[in-house]
Amino acid sequence: MIKTKLDPSIVAATLTTCLNKGVAPIALHEPSFRGNEWLFVKDCLDTGWVSSVGKYVDKFEQELAAFTGVKRAVAVVNGTASLQIAFEVAGVCPGDEVLVPDLTFVATTSAVKHCGANPHFVDISVTSLGVDPQKLREGLEKIGRQTPEGLFNLQTGKKISALVVVHTFGHPAEMDELAEICSEFKLTLVEDAAESIGSYYKGQHTGNVGLVSTLSFNGNKTITTGGGGAILTNDARIGEIAKHITTTAKIPHRWKFAHDRVGYNFRMPNINAALGCAQLESLPLLLSKKRDLAARYQIAFEEIPGVKFLAEPKYGKSNYWLNTLILDEDQAQLRDPILELTNNQGIQTRPAWEPMHTLPMYADCQRMDVSNSISMASRIINIPSSPCLTPDV
Amino acid sequence: MIKTKLDPSIVAATLTTCLNKGVAPIALHEPSFRGNEWLFVKDCLDTGWVSSVGKYVDKFEQELAAFTGVKRAVAVVNGTASLQIAFEVAGVCPGDEVLVPDLTFVATTSAVKHCGANPHFVDISVTSLGVDPQKLREGLEKIGRQTPEGLFNLQTGKKISALVVVHTFGHPAEMDELAEICSEFKLTLVEDAAESIGSYYKGQHTGNVGLVSTLSFNGNKTITTGGGGAILTNDARIGEIAKHITTTAKIPHRWKFAHDRVGYNFRMPNINAALGCAQLESLPLLLSKKRDLAARYQIAFEEIPGVKFLAEPKYGKSNYWLNTLILDEDQAQLRDPILELTNNQGIQTRPAWEPMHTLPMYADCQRMDVSNSISMASRIINIPSSPCLTPDV
Questions:
Q1: What are the residues whose beta carbons fall under 8 Å from the beta carbon of B70, sequence distance 6 or more?
Q2: Which of A25, A69, A149, A314 is a Cys-bridge partner for A346, taking CB atoms 3.0 to 4.6 Å apart?
């Protein structure tokens, strides 16, 4: 069924062809529990170790560090909490500005606010959907003033202390270029790898370039712990601080309850970590199934006019967390009709997030030119991406 | 074995007599999973609903509201998060002062800091261990200035916006007197009921007097969800706001991701709520077993000189979350030897928390006279309190 002009029915039909599991409803992303999930969770209940102490938290942290190749992983309650702590341990202070991509899940931005800092929106690349290095450099040259105390915003007088890069929908951002800008402008680099477990930048797992990085294990992610997240770092001292302040900053003692700084109760409960240990065992298989599905989408949508399937960048490997269609600029008006038709057919699809600068509570934040973000937000459609959509071999 | 003078061995021997389960190690408080825990958790794994959506969160919130008698309960990731949100929805603003008991778990205080507000320590009662109404009134009369905008601290110039009351170790605080002071001085009353599920003040479950209240379901609490907490309120509008801001402040829509204020990712995952639903079913039995144990302690320690078992106040009913011994003033030097001996014997005991004003990060906070807190901290010993220490009938 090849047409010369895009319409919603052709998108719906192409999706159905790719989705071997033909029975609606088909979720955007559902978890897969086919390994040791039961065994490990039941072990927690049988031993009574469900909470803040127990072997699975340590095991999960060690296995996460091994999988991602970082020195230290700290398991926490969710991705938002991991970002808040990442900013804090990266030295972001209340009142600072943090550069945040304009097109991301709201947590990247709210975590900046949770630190008492100010989001400053930067544009995204139309190819990687990560922060656009060229536009970032131009923006910083326009508004930045280098001082011995760091980079300051000429327009607000505030310190710009960090850049957070998001590996959007699992596609690795242009890290070499972004790291070079951070080094040149004296910005701390934080990677929000919430969406990119199993994604690699030039052969290295995402999250290894930033001073601190974060993961999410929400139920819609590639692997899940119910709710959960992690802080990743190659700096052992920062890893220690992250662990300490996410566990109430308690001073170790046999019975005494003393604490040495303002801490958070962000530790991941043992029962959730048990789920995570089982999920990590399955991760290679899940990633492989997700790549199979992405390959099917890629081939199928090559034939369709007016829309492109977003393939991984040449320099990296994507986990294809959420498979993504991008409508041509002159087809943007079809976004909502396509969402309407596919969701009515029980195929869950969704647009990208609303650009951050359009949300009422962030409308007054500083921003650079974010025209790519606006354009992509009007043209992106995420399509079903669960590993279960690829049958077992 | 009645002696006329207290020594550590007599305390250890008396504990052993009360603890029918003679085999060390005996934990301070361990959870009990003997109901539908595995059934409900397995249901989450089997259906894939482990995370932010699923029936157990709604069920847990409804059953919590029914059990405690409040209009609305909102389940969140832990007690600290519930306190932070309670302060925010109660109208505490950055820069305000919040009155906090000097002897409490550090989370009561850190949650104030997480709101950008300033803890101001007040003293505790030597009988209830809750906030001392008489000393609070005297303190406020000394430093408070009433204005049309509320109560201000004459010494700091800051607004004092709220009082948080803790039902320490499960014993209900003196709510009538404290509520009257809040009304007279125009303070918002928040109840930290983290330790007091199943505790009643004059026949009403704790958490019903404050504008907002909080619970904790950490692994050491009477019932647990792994990690978890809840916000309780009798104000429907405040309940709605609490639910909204703990779930990223997302505007409900079939596919659009828009948010209308700075929100938090504090929702309790479904798998943790499933555990909570099963625990709530067992709660009446667990409370009854805990009361049996407390009764045994009370009788046994009546005979022992130099130390008292803390009984519930006449006006209320305690869940006896952590059973508490209080050494006579002239026996305080025995606290550490008793802790040493009992812990060496595998009977887990612990002192109260370090008074808040002695922690380095809170040493500069405002405080009233906190002499009761200092005295009690030097004399309190918490003793094993698990429901499993009472055998089944």
A1: B205, B207, B208, B213, B232, B233, B234
A2: A25
My answer on whether A264 and A333 are in the same domain is no
CB B179 within 8 A of CB B194: no
Q: Say yes or no: B351 contacts chain A, CB-CB below 8 A.
A: yes
Last residue of a domain, one of B256, B280, B304: B280
Is the same domain home to A259 and A292? no
* B272–A269 CB contact, under 8 Å: yes
CB contact under 8 A, A270 and B226: yes
Judgement on whether residues A64 and A159 belong to the same structural domain of the protein: yes
In chain A, residues 107-126 whose CB comes closer than 8 Å to chain B? 107, 110, 113-114, 116
Q: Which of B50, B105, B107 sits opposite A224 (nearest CB)?
A: B50
Report if pTM > 0.90. yes
Q: Do A257 and B106 touch (CB under 8 A)?
A: yes
B47 at A interface, C-beta within 8 A: no
The 3-state DSSP class for residue A376 equals helix
Q: How does pLDDT run along chain A (393 residues), one tens digit per residue?
A: 555 789 999 999 999 999 875 677 999 999 999 999 999 999 999 988 876 777 999 999 999 999 999 999 999 999 999 999 999 999 999 999 999 999 999 999 999 999 999 999 999 999 999 999 999 999 999 999 999 999 999 999 999 999 999 999 999 999 999 999 999 999 999 999 999 999 999 999 999 999 999 999 999 999 999 999 999 999 999 999 999 999 999 999 989 989 999 999 999 999 999 999 999 999 999 999 999 999 999 999 998 999 999 999 999 999 999 999 999 999 999 999 999 999 999 999 999 999 999 999 999 999 999 999 999 999 999 999 999 999 886
Asked which of A252, A280, A308 is the last residue of a domain, the reply is A280
The answer, for B226 touching chain A at a CB cutoff of 8 Å, is yes
Residue B347 contacts A where some CB pair is shorter than 8 Å? no
Q: Whole-angstrom Cα distance, residue A149 to residue B127? A: 53
Are B296 and B261 part of one and the same domain?
no
Number of domains in chain A: 2
Residue of A nearest to B109 (CA): A262
Out of A113, A226, A263, name the one closest to residue B51 (CB).
Answer: A226
What phi-psi label fits residue B132: left (phi over 0), alpha (psi between -120 and 50 degrees) or beta? beta
Cβ contacts of residue A380 below 8 Å, gap of 6+? A324, A325, A326, A327, A335, A351, A352
Distances (CA, A) of B257 to A113, A165, B243, B332, B375: 19, 20, 17, 58, 53
Same domain for A150 and A288?
no
- Say if the Cβ atoms of A261 and B38 lie within 8 Å: no
**Domain ranges, residue B71:** 37-280
CA gap B314, A27 in Å, rounded: 56
A173 touches A167 (CB < 8 A): yes
Å between B95 CA and nearest CA of chain A: 12
Q: Are residues A329 and A383 in the same domain?
A: yes
- Whether A337 and chain B come into contact, CB under 8 Å, resolves to no
- We report the CATH number of the domain holding residue A290 as 3.90.1150.10
